[in-house]
Design brief:
It contains nine helices and ten strands. The chain is an alpha/beta fold and 294 residues long. α3 packs parallel to α4 and α7 runs antiparallel to α8. The longest helix has 42 residues.
């Protein structure tokens, strides 16, 4: 028996056989409490033809908690197989089946699988929509108390030390608040490196297990937080749980002072270069004259 065809809408595009293509829906999942699930999530889980889940076991537990009976086909969709699975899911969409993407927590495509599938579906003219909902990025930013008028989301820092240090060095002078995801196993190292690139006294907030039973929001300077994480690592094996790290941008006054210093140094270097060039021209003329006399 074939998979039943889901809903259609006037905005959907024609499939390979002239029928309507399915709809790709990105569904936000709770970052902690299941009660935070968007109301539409239960309805979409119940009627989707195909559900692409980052972790199929977690997806089934979430559906059970929401008292949803899943009738569609559930397929795994995680980073290692994302490219191959995206091509398969596009074929499902072109055949007229609706596909729902659910990652472990938060919004698909935000440091989670989803981007490649959205790009591939959009390239085929397939309708893409979303069920908005919980996001660790905006939740951490909101509770951090750091400026939120301008911010950058940096995702997970690179794992290779050289690449990570270059990224942090680039971000150090940024005036925007920065939001990072990080593994608890690497938190102490990352905080230490950020303290080196951004300064020990830069304000930061570690958000752990947001909205969950053991939620912890720890504020301090990067130097203080690095010491805290290192102490925990030495005494009890380190921090545990899902981590979102919010780091203040450099103050605008500091940024202006740095820009002024850089401009001053540039002018000084230009004057030195001009004097050296003029001296070279004078010396060259003298040498030519001496050569002629000889």
């Amino acid at each position: 028996m074939g998979v039943p065809v889901g809903r259609t809408s006037g905005s959907e595009t024609a499939g390979v056989s002239g029928s309507r293509s399915g709809v790709l829906t990105l569904a936000a999942a709770p970052i902690g409490l299941a009660a935070d699930a968007p109301p539409r999530l239960a309805a979409e889980l119940a009627k989707a033809d195909v559900i692409a889940a980052e972790d199929t076991r977690r997806l089934r537990r979430l559906a059970a908690t929401l008292d949803v009976t899943v009738t569609g086909r559930i397929v795994s969709y995680y980073d290692v197989i994302e490219v191959r699975r995206a091509a398969e899911l596009v074929r499902e969409l072109k055949a007229g089946r609706d596909v729902l993407v659910v990652t472990d927590a938060g919004m698909p495509a935000i440091s989670d699988p989803g981007y490649r599938l959205v790009a591939a579906a959009a390239a085929e003219g397939i309708t893409v929509t979303a069920i908005p909902g919980p996001s660790a990025v905006t939740t951490a930013l909101a509770v951090s108390g750091l400026p939120s008028d301008r911010f950058s989301f940096e995702g997970f820092p690179p794992r290779k030390e050289g690449e990570r240090n270059r990224r942090f060095a680039e971000n150090g002078p940024d005036t925007r608040t920065q939001v990072y995801f990080e593994s608890p196993r690497r938190l102490a190292v990352t905080l230490t490196e950020l303290a080196r690139s951004h300064g020990d006294d830069r304000a930061a907030v570690v958000c752990r297990e947001l909205t969950k039973t053991y939620e912890e929001i720890r504020r301090g300077t990067l130097g203080e937080l690095a010491a805290w994480a290192a102490d925990l690592e030495a005494s009890s094996g380190g921090v545990r749980g899902e981590i979102t790290l919010v780091v203040a941008g450099v103050s605008r006054a500091t940024a202006k002072a740095v820009a002024r210093d850089a401009a001053r140094e540039a002018r000084r270097a230009a004057r030195f270069s001009a004097r050296a060039r003029d001296a070279g021209d004078v010396g060259g003329g003298t040498g030519d004259a001496i050569g002629d006399d000889g």
